[in-house]
Amino acid sequence: MGRWRGDGGDAGGLDGLRRHLTGGTGGHRLRFGSGAAGIERLEASLVGEGFAPHRHDTYAIGVTLAGVQTFRYRGELRHCTPGDWHVLHPDEVHDGMPGTDEGFGYRILYVDPFLVQQALGGRTLPFVADPVVRRRDARSPLSECLRDIDEPFDDLGCLDVVLLVTEMLQKHSAARPGRRSPLALEALSRVRELIADDPVSRHSVEEFERLSGLDRWTLARQFRAAYGTSPTRFRTMRQLDRVRRLLRGGMPPPGAALEAGFADQSHMTRMFKRAYGLTPAAWAAALAGP
Q1: 131 by DSSP, 3-state: which?
Q2: Half-sphere exposure of 268 (CA within 13 A, CB side)
Q3: Is residue 73 in a domain?
Q4: Structural domains of the chain, count
Q5: Would you state the pLDDT for residue 96?
Q6: Helix intervals (H) in 111-215
Q7: Are 32 and 151 members of one domain?
Q8: Is 197 exposed, middle or buried (0-12, 13-18, 19+ CB in 10 A)?
Q9: pTM: predicted TM-score of the whole model, two decimal places
Q10: 114-124 pLDDT tens trace
């Protein structure tokens, strides 16, 4: 952890993480830093119970700061120790739990695949088959943007982060066999924007076909290749984004569920836990922690 203490503006966050790991009480601690459109930064620590299996529609690129982090990913149990990175592809199911009684702490970037797609210029998203990048192999400039997660991004800073993320993904990606047809990115982008602008509304497949000019099978296949998830899953995650904003603003879960377009609170809770590994109540309590 010592290499993370060089920035004086960062000491408070790590001190809080240390207190939670050494305080003798179980639970989760989550602290969001400064972000930007399509980019989130989070500091987290877990003692005791871990995250339930879940999946999100972003790239998740994090570094372990303390303790031993374990998670099951693509059928194998993985381990990260301080200085190791983990790189998770969108829509890949994983959990997360302490490898020892002392718990673990980490910092992580969540990056919208749409931004990576823009940096790639239309190529299929890279896939990192082995999610653990050992400290000796990482040496990533991304360390700087996680050193002080409260430092705001400007426009150029956002571009730098996306390019660094893309370079890291390409460096550690496993090439998939076979040639792929070019992606109809302009058509796919219209569908993506329609969903993102109004995730509460449920649009029909026929509407997507008319908007994109693609048949439903091509649309579904290319949407996943371009953005790492399905149109249906993308809509659910945008609904959950709205739920998180409402919960952080103090709205009770039943109201947040209805406001975000879910049938009821129980439906929203199921989707929330599948996306973040915690119930809405546990997530909100973790944010409110010391």
Answers
A1: coil
A2: 26
A3: yes
A4: 3
A5: 94
A6: 113-120, 135-138, 142-147, 155-172, 185-197, 205-212
A7: yes
A8: exposed
A9: 0.84
A10: 999 999 887 88
